[in-house]
TrEMBL record:
It holds the Pfam family BTAD. This is Bacterial transcriptional activator domain-containing protein. The keyword Transferase does not apply. InterPro entries: AfsR-DnrI-RedD_regulator (IPR051677), BTAD (IPR005158), TPR-like_helical_dom_sf (IPR011990), TPR_rpt (IPR019734), WH-like_DNA-bd_sf (IPR036388). Keywords: TPR repeat.
Length: 415
């Protein structure tokens, strides 16, 4: 990856992805705590560049609602401690922050380069130009500078949140434009890298859709499905959220475009056998856990075959609740209960039954050859197993619908 070259006698300040200072080719660490107030003072001033910061704004950001008897003296002492720590770290004996009229600015005695300011500068130049080649040059520099979210160790500080939101909005524009521009030139590897890097930094921002679209354009459907499945697992397991519409849309487009390339029957058989073995190893003898899109496909297949086979099919929705029947708010507790419910469903149901995790709090089950009364028995069996795994207070509620009745219900809703 391209690195920005900076003169060694310039203090290099990196704020994106992590905080670091480099001077004269060596990394320096003032003080023992990167979250100290004097460090934050420097970071705030550095982020403002030539604009400077009013003293009141600095005090508000640094002290907030803290009660300090003499706030002005505390602030002056902070400036003194900051300069002392910078010199102790091996940096030149300078002020680093100077008062100019009513503003605090970067001390010009020690030139400073700040990655976030360089990012903003390249973003603005790219945003303002209409020349695609120039835009690419500036946006590509901005993209390489953005190594992660602003000061992640201070992500709960109000001043960091405000700056981070603005920077992230710029980064989103950079990634969107770069991805589309590079993809239009059919440079698939580079486009995949752009979207992949963005997905590493902001996995909840659906950049994986760009990765999938790139792989589809390249004709690599197998890896497109792999990225899709990994992303679905991230949303349902890590975030405990339903699958975003963007992902479902790209899945349907991908499914419509997949034309199996000509192959030998033995090769196809080997691939299917390998996939089957992976299912058998991971699922043992329990019910079949599949991705949400695969669950939808199974639902449609069973719906179409009900009349021919005569089997009844019910879909059960299981929703985790606390012992009072309310939604579980604590996310750590919810994740643990979700895993316990997964095990309870998997252990209790038959191999012929299919289920999927819809979100951290909900699972969907397809029950073949059961009756309405059987569904209540199944619920009790799953709940019994859940309590064995997670304790007597673990509970979930359920609702069921017959696949035979569902089309009529949807038709009534459409009227």
């Amino acid at each position: 990856m391209e690195q920005t070259k900076v003169d060694e006698k310039v203090l290099q300040v990196r704020l994106l992805g992590k905080f670091s200072l480099v001077y004269d080719g060596k990394e320096v660490t003032p003080g023992r705590n990167n979250a100290s107030k004097f460090t934050q003072l420097l970071q705030i001033v550095w982020l403002q560049g030539d604009k400077g910061v009013y003293k009141d704004e600095l005090i508000s950001a640094l002290y907030g609602e803290e009660e300090t008897l003499n706030i002005s003296n505390s602030f002056n002492n902070l400036l003194y401690q900051m300069r002392k720590q910078m010199v102790a770290a091996g940096l030149p004996a300078q002020s680093y922050v100077k008062k100019h009229k009513k503003m605090f600015i970067i001390d010009p005695a020690v030139p400073v380069w700040v990655d976030a300011l360089d990012f903003k500068d390249n973003y603005r130049k790219g945003h303002d130009t209409q020349d695609p080649e120039l835009k690419f040059e500036y946006f590509n520099k901005a993209f390489n500078l953005y190594q992660g979210e602003l000061l992640p160790a201070l992500s709960t500080e109000t001043w960091v949140i405000m700056e981070s939101v603005a920077l992230r909005k710029m980064y989103d524009e950079v990634v969107s434009w770069l991805g589309e521009y590079i993809l239009s030139k059919k440079e698939y590897e580079e486009a995949y890298h752009i979207y992949g890097r963005a997905a590493e930094i902001y996995p909840e921002n659906d950049w994986q859709v760009g990765q999938i679209q790139t792989l589809i354009a390249k004709g690599d459907y197998k890896n497109a499905l792999r990225v899709y499945d990994n992303t679905v697992a991230y949303y349902t397991t890590e975030l405990g959220l339903p699958i975003p519409e963007k992902l479902l849309d790209v899945y349907h487009k991908m499914s419509a475009k997949i034309d199996n390339a000509p192959g030998q029957i033995h090769q196809i058989q080997a691939e299917m056998t390998q996939d089957r073995r992976s299912v058998e190893v991971s699922e043992d003898e329990g019910a079949y856990d599949c991705s949400y899109p695969s669950f939808i496909d199974a639902y449609h297949i069973l719906s179409r075959n009900m009349e021919r086979t005569g089997y009844s099919v019910f879909m059960m929705l299981c929703t985790l609740v606390d012992y009072e029947g309310k939604m579980i708010r604590n996310q750590d507790k919810l994740r643990a209960r979700s895993q316990a419910l997964w095990e309870a469903i998997h252990d209790t149901l038959r191999q012929g039954d299919t289920f999927t995790k819809y979100s951290n709090s909900q699972f969907l089950i397809l029950l073949v050859g059961t009756s309405q009364e059987d569904c209540d028995i199944i619920y009790r069996r799953i709940n019994k197993r859940l309590k064995e795994i997670a304790g007597s207070r673990a509970d979930f509620k359920y609702s069921v619908v017959s696949l035979a009745e569902l089309p009529a219900e949807l038709e009534d809703q459409a009227r």
